[in-house]
Structure formats: structure tokens, C-alpha cells
């Protein structure tokens, strides 16, 4: 019954099952345990969150007042670029892979991930990748300065020398993501406990299954895209160089064919997590489980046919603008289904507002605001006004910060008792939430206004008339940034001690992960739980 | 163990998908070119046009010319006239002049683009210096013709269109051959 493919390791899970983890540093280097790897992913992601966050602090410090005072424009460009790359690929994506590693096997009653050794490799590629990426900042000519979207020819003809390191870093993290996704998909499709049918899976598992397929479909396209850049720069091809018959606009098509599904990769697992958390604290089963599954699948499908809405201003024909405009607006339908389902789940529930629930409720409200500004941007004629302004920055920070990142915080607080065996400090958790909530809104809400008034993004200086809003934004950003150190403290405090957590610390929580003790033993479900256990613990989110 | 075999088969399939999508990324290049041709996207014009049209003496279209140097290109480059008025269907010629002020032989490539982009499919070049590369010796000046026909089917709302050339220095990519020693 072992999940390990390698025949030498067959049965490993059974024989090894009484042993705890190995001792010392090599435990982490060599581990194939999904919980260890999940932990490493989460810590790595948090480290990257702080690094990318400190770059955001540099950006906001420079934008605190008009004029140039702290950094030079060249360095400012490197900061905006690296902030985006690190947050997208280093913080948000690995955090979700970490959550998947920890929770997916425990939610479906599997002993481990389907491919434990590959799991180890896909994690350890990440430090290598980001080491390479961050090292470019110390190279002559500086790091990537062409924006996280690295449009050609900025990233080819006019790029700093270090661009090759950037390309290899993207290759490495792409390989890591693809392997991680294959692993999650194989685990979900092949290692479910008997009786755990697809439509009984918790939504976090469902959203990750769909995310896994999205990753497998688009990360190779990104790899192809940077490979073409590499060839243009070093091997004399002209994929993106007009001089040799190529086309820079082609770059944008290839990039956004990856880039748009990518934004759903960063939000779907958060959808799944809050779909577990909201029912737990509303003490009601999730409203509309089946429609949630179909809505997630529809969003994933639609994400492949809307990419050109990022490119309304490059000169696509009118019919193209209309198609991409309507296709984009169509995404509001399944997303609306989800938002209404969450609201209906809370409706008349016996709600309590522990930290995970606070983050989840804020997620629903603030993500919806981000969705509305997305609808505004989807209107092709209006987009000509909003394009490349701070309105876009406000939009995607509203879907990524209170969307993806609040989803991750909610998940962390929700499952911390299971991971550590202790309850976190609820007072500090609430403080973290309120500081993040206020800081985040102060930072990003004024960006809507300066964007509509025409402040361009990615520029270190701005017109005097934007000064007040920018100062408010910066104060909010500093507040949000500093608060994350409180989160670090809360997590460390929770690991080191606290009220012991029960196997199921939340009354309304459902799912197999709550049937194992807290902290979860090193090996769980070495023998799969049987159907009777499943039913007894009411894992079917649709139960009556 | 059947579970292992199942996993192996699934992983193999997923790997095939990964390779296929990597290939698809590259397949987007020809797909993009075909789409641009088919829908006249992006102001891309087709290659040499073979064919003749009867001119439409009723209608007049203004054709404007633009010449731009790409970054780091030092030649002087421009059309002999900024604008001509033509009848659709009629074959018209315009001369562009390029001059190499440096003391080195250089190769250049001009890339055309037509605006508005929906007119691109109706702008036919029967002869163009952009179909080949230009090699200019130090101090050499050259007159380069483009001969074109504006299609009779040009949408009625297009009254003027712009033919823009961007001149790129491709000396590094295609070094000027043989004649280098005068």
C-alpha cells in the first residue's frame, strides 16, 4: 500500500512507521515526509514574503513623497521587478504547495504524497532558484529591472547582463512547480482512501487538483517563453526582435497565455481553504458544494481564453477586444457563484470570529472589491484609461493580498493547532488580523484614486497632486509590513508552547485531518481510514 | 503493486502533457504569424504581392510615410515625400533614402507596419526594400523604392493610412560581406 514508486522503498511507510523523524540537519535535506516538506515550503515562502515585502517597503519609502530621495530610478525598477517575482513565485505559490503537502494527504486519508522523493527535489530546487534570482541584485549592472512581466525587448535587447541568471531561475522554479503539481495531482487521483470519492473530497483538495492541472498546462509555456528569450539573447534567433522578423507583441501573447491562468493558480487554493474554514466557524455545511466544484472548473477553463485583456492597448482588432472583454466578464459568473455560496454558508450560521474566520470573512469582502475593479478593467474602452496606472496596481493587490495572502493566513491559523499541537495566541492573532486589515486597506485603497487620476505605475517619482494619497499608501504599507513580524512571533510562540490543542480544536470543523491527534503524528493514515470512519466524522461536506 | 503502476502511468501521462505544452509555447510563434496574416492583426503586411488591379478613379486614399530609426541606428533614413494621394487599385512608387554616415560598412533591415491595422491586409507591396537587407559602405547613400497597391476592397471608412518603416542595425547579425575593403 506504500505510495512510494521505488520498489526498494515499497513498504517503507509501514516498517518505518514507529520511528519519528531522523535527527539533525540531514532530516530536512533528505526528508521525503510530506509534513516535513510542507513545513519547509511554508517557512521558505514566509522568508520570501519578508524579502519581497522589504522590497515593497523600499518602493513605498521612495514613493512616500514626490521627487527622488532614497533610491535611484534604476534600483527602484529592480525593486518593483523583484518584489513582483518574489511575491508571485517565491511567496504565494510555495505557500500553497506547502499547504497542499501538509493537508492534501491528511484530507484524503493518504499516507504521504504519491512521489515523495520528487517532492523533496521540487522543494530544494526553490532555494537554488531564488538564490540565483536574488544574487543578480549584487551583479554588475544590477538585477532584473524590466517589471515582473519582463516584456521583450526590455528584457532582451535592453536587459542588464544578469538576465541570463533570471532566465535560469525561472526555469528552475518552473521545474519545481511542475513537479509539485504532478505530485499533487497524482496524490489526489491515486491515493484517496477507499470511499473518498471525488465528490466527497474537501474543496481545498478539489481546488488544488484543478490548480495542479493549470500549473501543468501553463508553467511549460512560461519555460518556453524564457527559453525563446534566452535564444534571442544568446543564439541569434529573433522570436521577439522585429529586426530579424520577429515581433515583440508575440512575447506578450506567450507571456499572458501563461500569466492569466497563473493568477488563478494563486487564488484557487485560497478559495478551497476558505471553503473549509467558513463552514467550520459558521457551524453549517458549505452551501452549494457541487456548484463550488463546477465554478472552480469553469474559472480554470475561462482563464485560458482571456489572456489578451492584459493587452487591450497593443492594437488588437475590434472583434478581438470584444471577445476578450466579454470572455473576461464571463468569469464574474462562476466567481459570483462562489461569493454567494460563502455568503449563504454564513447566513443564519452560529458564527464565531476566531482569527481564521476573521481572515476568511475579510477575504470574501476584499476579494470581491478586487473582483469589481477587475470588471472595470475588463471593459476594453475604459481600460485604455486605466492601463498601466495605479488602478491596475490597486486591483491586483486587492486580489492578491486579501485574496491569496489572507487565504494563506486563514489556513495557517486554522491548521496551526494541527501542525504544532498548540493553540496560537488568539489575542495576538486578532491583533495581527486587524493590523493587516487596516494596513492593507490604507495601502491599497488610495491607489484606486491616484490610478484613476492618471498616476502611472512603476515610476519612482510622481506629480505633486498625488502626494497625499501616496503618503497614506506608504503609511499603510509600513503598517502592513511591520505587522507581519507579529505573525512570525505568533507562529514561533505557537510552536514553542501554548494551550494543548485537541484533535479537533474547532467545533464546526470537518474532514479527515481532524481525526488524527494534534500535533499530527509523523506518519498518518499508514493504513487508510475505512468508509465507516469517514462517515462517522462526517467528511462529506454536503451532509444533511 | 497496482497502485504503483497506476501512479507511474498517470505521471507518465502528465509528463507528456508537460512536454506537449512546452511545444505549444513554441507553436504559438507560427500560430501567431498565421493569425496576424489571416486577420491583419498588428499592422503586419504580407510578402510580395503578385497581381494586378483595376484602379478605382472615384476614390482617393491618402498614404502617409513614416521612417523611424530603431535605438542605436545612426543612418539617416526617410521618404522623399511625407504623403501621396492614390486611387485604390493603382500602382504607386515611393523612394526612401538611406545614408550611412559612419566609417564602417553596415547592414540594415527595414520592418514595415501599416496603421490602422485593419488596413494592413489591404495594403499590397509589389516591390519593397524591406524584402531584403541593405548593405551600405561608409558614406554611401542609396535610394530604395517601394511599389504598392491599395486594394480596391479597402474598407470605406479608411480614408488615410500610414506606412511606417523602422530601420534596424543588423550588422552584428549579418556582417556585410566581401566588399568591406574598398
TrEMBL record, chain A:
Pfam families: COX1. Keywords: Cell membrane, Copper, Electron transport, Heme, Iron, Membrane, Metal-binding, Respiratory chain, Translocase, Transmembrane, Transmembrane helix, Transport. It catalyses: 4 Fe(II)-[cytochrome c] + O2 + 8 H(+)(in) = 4 Fe(III)-[cytochrome c] + 2 H2O + 4 H(+)(out). The keyword Transmembrane applies. The chain crosses the membrane at residues 40-61, 81-102, 123-143, 163-191, 203-231, 263-281, 293-312, 324-344, 356-380, 392-416, 428-449, 469-492. Cytochrome c oxidase is the component of the respiratory chain that catalyzes the reduction of oxygen to water. Subunits 1-3 form the functional core of the enzyme complex. CO I is the catalytic subunit of the enzyme. Electrons originating in cytochrome c are transferred via the copper A center of subunit 2 and heme A of subunit 1 to the bimetallic center formed by heme A3 and copper B. This is Cytochrome c oxidase subunit 1. It comes from Pseudomonas cuatrocienegasensis.
TrEMBL record, chain B:
It is a single-pass type II membrane protein. Belongs to the COX11/CtaG family. Exerts its effect at some terminal stage of cytochrome c oxidase synthesis, probably by being involved in the insertion of the copper B into subunit I. SUPFAM superfamilies: Ctag/Cox11. It is found in: Cell inner membrane. Pfam families: CtaG_Cox11 (PF04442). The keyword Membrane applies. This is Cytochrome c oxidase assembly protein CtaG. The chain crosses the membrane at residues 12-32. Keywords: Copper, Membrane, Signal-anchor, Transmembrane, Transmembrane helix. It comes from the Bacteria. NCBIfam families: PRK05089.1 (NF003465).
